């Protein structure tokens, strides 16, 4: 398969103003790419990317849940640069506080799924004809939550499992067109979404350390993910799993998921932590 030279390629990124999106944008920029950077806050985008050469960068506000907005940004990017070679569907949110399916409100569950699943769909749908024309690449941000237990994080985990399936199906559907698709599976990354599990919430922090011991409970810098993304997009990889310690978990998920679920079902400490964070979440809704 022909590798993708990123120099002068036009790359659209959603969720670009922080975390993984920001690190990946900076990495692509260093490779000589032209960027279409989107997020909810124009101020955050302008501040984050103020030092970039704006002849190579188009910045736009975008709520990925809104298909009309997404199509409008794509149309403006085409008007500006003439093409889109790579789309990185990266925008995502998590619950404001760790919660369970009993405690979460309908609105919050729906909001997370809207952004993390339908926002990805909107990005794919709006960019796909242009990616095919350019024989380019679409990369979708899933998560290790596509293959690990989503306790206390169900809407996020369900969405990430769903977008993994979208990415796999899309790659097969694109076979023979010259265009490709891939799925990114970040492990724990030092981003605002993960902060709650690393000191921001007592029960969640303890739960991660207990259920994911050793290196599996450690967060990495966004730059680690960005390096993997750049290499993966250049090679048109079907899967990018970073950090690499999670690769065996993905490859052996059928066996390991059944085993880990059975262990968690019997782990009284996990049960206590879940009940505790559930009570906190319910109490917060009642305030």
Automatic annotation (TrEMBL):
Ranges in a coiled coil: none
Bilayer-spanning residue ranges: none
Domain Ketoreductase: 9-191
GO molecular function: oxidoreductase activity
Keyword Oxidoreductase: yes
Pfam families, alphabetized: adh_short
Keywords carried by this UniProt record: Oxidoreductase
Nucleotidyltransferase found in the keyword field: no
Any single GO CC term annotated in Swiss-Prot or TrEMBL for this entry: membrane
Domain of life (superkingdom): Bacteria
Assigned protein family: Belongs to the short-chain dehydrogenases/reductases (SDR) family.
PANTHER family with a match to the protein in the record: DEHYDROGENASE/REDUCTASE SDR FAMILY MEMBER 7B, DEHYDROGENASE_REDUCTASE SDR FAMILY MEMBER 7B
Record protein name field: SDR family NAD(P)-dependent oxidoreductase
Species name: Aquirhabdus parva
Taxonomy of the source species: Bacteria, Pseudomonadati, Pseudomonadota, Gammaproteobacteria, Moraxellales
């Amino acid at each position: 398969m022909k590798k993708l030279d990123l120099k002068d390629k036009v790359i659209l990124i959603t969720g670009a103003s922080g975390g993984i999106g920001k690190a990946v944008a900076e990495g692509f920029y260093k490779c000589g790419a032209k960027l279409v950077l989107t997020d909810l806050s124009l101020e955050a985008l302008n501040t984050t990317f103020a030092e970039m050469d704006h002849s190579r960068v188009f910045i736009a506000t975008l709520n990925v849940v809104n298909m009309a907005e997404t199509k409008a940004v794509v149309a403006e990017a085409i008007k500006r640069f003439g093409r889109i070679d790579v789309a990185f569907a990266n925008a995502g949110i998590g619950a404001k506080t760790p919660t369970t399916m009993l405690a979460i409100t309908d609105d919050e569950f729906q909001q997370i799924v809207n952004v993390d699943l339908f926002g990805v769909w909107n990005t794919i749908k709006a960019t796909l004809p242009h990616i095919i024309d350019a024989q380019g690449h679409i990369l979708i941000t899933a998560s290790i939550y596509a293959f690990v237990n989503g306790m206390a994080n169900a809407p996020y985990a369900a969405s990430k499992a769903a977008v993994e399936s979208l990415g796999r199906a899309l790659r097969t559907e694109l076979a023979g067109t010259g265009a490709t698709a891939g799925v990114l599976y970040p492990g724990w990354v030092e981003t605002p979404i993960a902060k709650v599990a690393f000191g921001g919430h007592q029960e969640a922090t303890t739960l991660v350390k207990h259920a994911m011991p050793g290196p599996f409970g450690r967060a990495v810098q966004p730059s680690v993910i960005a390096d993997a993304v750049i290499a993966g997009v250049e090679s048109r990889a079907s899967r990018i799993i970073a950090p690499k310690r999670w690769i065996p978990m993905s490859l052996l998920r059928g066996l390991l998921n059944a085993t880990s679920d059975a262990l968690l079902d019997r782990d009284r400490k996990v049960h206590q932590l879940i009940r505790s964070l559930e009570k906190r979440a319910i109490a917060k809704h009642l305030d």
